UniProtKB/TrEMBL annotation:
One Pfam family named in its UniProt record: PTS_EIIA_2
Organism the protein comes from: Paenibacillus xylanexedens
Alphabetized Gene3D superfamilies for the sequence: Mannitol-specific EII, Chain A, PRD domain, Winged helix-like DNA-binding domain superfamily/Winged helix DNA-binding domain
Protein's name according to its UniProt entry: Transcriptional antiterminator
Residue ranges of every copy of the PTS EIIA type-2 domain listed in the record: 478-621
Keywords: Activator, Repeat, Transcription, Transcription regulation
Superkingdom of the organism of origin: Bacteria
Chain ranges of the PRD domain: 287-394
InterPro entries linked: BglG_antiterminators, HTH_11, Mga_HTH, PRD, PRD_sf, PTrfase/Anion_transptr, PTS_EIIA_type-2_dom, WH-like_DNA-bd_sf
Keyword Transcription regulation in record: yes
PROSITE patterns from the UniProt entry: PRD_2, PTS_EIIA_TYPE_2
Amino acid sequence: MRKRYIKLLEHLKQSEHDFVSGSELANLFDVTTRTIRNDIKEINENYLDKAMIIGNTRKGYKLVGDLSSLYKNEDDDEERAFHIIKALLSQTDFITYEDLARTLYFSTQTIRKDVQKLVQTIQAEKQNIEIEAIIFQGIRLKGSEVEKRILLKKLVTTDCLKHMPIDEALQYYFGDWFNESSIHFIYACIEEEVAKYNLLLSFQELFSICVNVLISLKRVSLAQKITEQDMRLDHTSFEELKIAQSILIRLAQEMDIPFDEYEYQYLGYLLIALQILPKKNEEIGHEHVNEMEQKIKSVIQKVGEQYGFISYKNQELLDRLLAHITKSLYPLKYYFPVENPFIAQIKSEYTNAYNVAVVLAKELQFCLNIKIPENEIGYLTLHIMGIIENSQDNRKRIAIIYGKNLLVGKLLERKINLYFPNIRIDILLANHEIHLLPEGIETIITTSEIAEQQQLNVQNIILVSEMITSDDMKNISIQLNRGLLKYYLSPDDVFFLNEDNPIDLLKKLTELGDIQHLYTSIVEREKMSSTNIGNLVAMPHPFDCGDNKKLRVLVAINKQKMLWGDQMAQIIFLFIPPKNQKVNNTKFFEEIYDVFKQTNMTDKLLHITNYDEFLEVWSSK
């Protein structure tokens, strides 16, 4: 519970059940009467059980009922963790558990447990900070000033923005550090300075900037500045650094706070991590290419050649990717958190590009000895998706095969062009001319049966009637979006398992598919970023390629759900990249995503018992 809430309740309790006016309470806490109204609403709805604050438009507010159960809600670990770290950053000396407990209105035992959890979290993330404990003195936060601030910022969520404006949310978190008028002023200054750069920021992004600035203001006021021991000055000239400087110079003048170059760079790197600038604005922020940029360029070249998208045609997009990575690595080397609200959507909708981005991130981590988080991989994906789309004609390549009547073929061509603009009709052939079929055709739409003895390297064959009915057009639509899996999936590669966890399932699946040599690579890929795409579906794969000439897919239907990453999974598509990685499989991943957008598809597949049933369900409407 917020400290102001506690004090407000205590004041009402001491009033011996008399009414207290809203203006008196507002003056007492240096806030507006509107804030008092909101506080009382929040207290009544979320904290009071056997008591209530009642309001009277003429008299004010009065507390009625029993407060004995008020402070016994011990469940909100995250909120207490925030207040503990904030209390540690509010001073420079040790603070005892007893003082923390009194400050936060929880038992000493609860605070000790919370601190222990925080110690474990910090150790698990291998941060350059620690909670130091000394008997008879208490605890304090020790280590990098940059990471101390980042730790507190991580504990601030944007959930409150769903039911209150930004300035009230800032007051909610930092009302004991700054009075309401100061928070209004700081927020207004930041909003005005950001507006000068014509940035279209979301409420969450603007809120994050304000939170970081408030934390910096407090720490600098306590003479806890960032020094060269925490972060070296990189002397870059990114646009975000100019924006940060503009904000802090304005506040320094208005509030007499001594900000310096380290503080400018700290806020600038936070802005880079927030990705506030449009992608087209990204460029390398200094004149000469340094050693790090040469390493990044060589990694991009290596991965680009592996996946076949290095070309003169893509040079501008590759330069943007280089600029993005170069810029992003500056905040990443100091563990600045990257915020990406679209990561789940990116992973599911751009699966192929995301997989390439994971490979690129792995190579960068090895080459530069730096950790690249999942959210940043999401941003790499957007760049790579643009490169892939620029590298190819995304329209499906189709051949039409008709019996003997050319008019039937022409009618089918006209209808397909009308209904499917993403299709390119390469050629019309009579059945006896099928030997003239050009290379690269993905799908044949035919009005006549094609003899089995004709060996065609085509992913999909769709049979329609010569009348070309509306049902035929529906069938074409379904088969175009569902036909690739049949091309890649062998009847011997559908398995029905009953494993408890992803590790055991992957081990069993690689054994059954005779690809045990890829197991370690598959697990390493999973550690980089979960391959769960939602709707009980996961799509694991190795970093390494197999000895297969085309993409190979193994499907496992597991008897029980299991936790795969941060979501449950039960249907597993394990795909093995072909020996020639330059083969682009974007359309296959699009098919998987398109199919599972239908929520009932998962339920249907969980009830199949063999390969034929799988394909029947997969191709159903």
